[in-house]
């Protein structure tokens, strides 16, 4: 079978390898149907290289069809359609024992410490799998994981019906935030980015107001559109050192700032934005991963439900579809930012 393995920084190789075998009685062999690129994949590919073991199969956002189940697996059978949580909590630490898996002391991820999804087949623990109904396509199901990350962030922010929301950054995660803000009952959604094309996507996903951060001062623009108060919740989904500081000034007094984006660099906060935390008595929360109990958690259940109902449709986020055979060139191109992209999806059986 084909598998894309990461050997070093910007050294991703598509190789022919044996189909993996089930070695644990509670594991499942899955034929990968669709698998997407996560922003963290790009950072690991272009900046950090393999986390632990050199030459592991890369990728962790995916869906597929069960090919074989281990002898002790219950609830799943050959032919079932599944999405898979890539998280690998230890299940032993104090946080895992309280089903707070996102805080696991040694949380790892498929594709970083175990072979991942940029392949024809993958073996995963049965407990990581979740059934997907026929109403959800495989490419939609491959986005359940990042969608659940967004839902978990809204839970962290304790969003209430009627809240106003600002979303900073209109990449795939930010665009998912916009659509989920509607489902959570947002009264007004403001989207901020520096690329006009992404702001167009934000409008299409349901943003009421879009602000180009290059063309106008984001703080002043948000205040102008909110009668001077700011918004109840600010979702930081850009993950840059600048925006991580900037978002603190966009929340209303007593508002909440939720961090989803990962800056991968030191963040320096100027006095005005830092004092906004104190003077405006903000609640600043972080959000990491999406997994809670019962594993993988209610964010996953919510995503499947609202996808099935058609109230969450992430298909418009997919801007590029490729055969898995193109994975090496695609990563090179995307990391160089030679093209504007949203969600990129690979199909081991070919694009149909």
Automatic annotation (TrEMBL):
Keyword Oxidoreductase included in the entry's annotation: yes
Keyword Metal-binding: yes
A Pfam family reported for this protein in Swiss-Prot or TrEMBL: ADH_zinc_N
Source species of the chain: Alkalibacter saccharofermentans DSM 14828
Keywords, alphabetical: Metal-binding, Oxidoreductase, Zinc
TM helices/strands, residue ranges: none
SMART domains with a match to the protein in the record: PKS_ER (SM00829)
Domain Enoyl reductase (ER) positions: 7-346
Protein name: L-iditol 2-dehydrogenase
Cofactor: Zn(2+)
Annotated InterPro entries: ADH-like_C, ADH-like_N, ADH_Zn_CS, ER, GroES-like_sf, NAD(P)-bd_dom_sf, Zn_alcohol_dh
UniProt record similarity statement: Belongs to the zinc-containing alcohol dehydrogenase family.
Gene Ontology terms, MF aspect: oxidoreductase activity; zinc ion binding
CDD domains registered for this protein in UniProt: sugar_DH
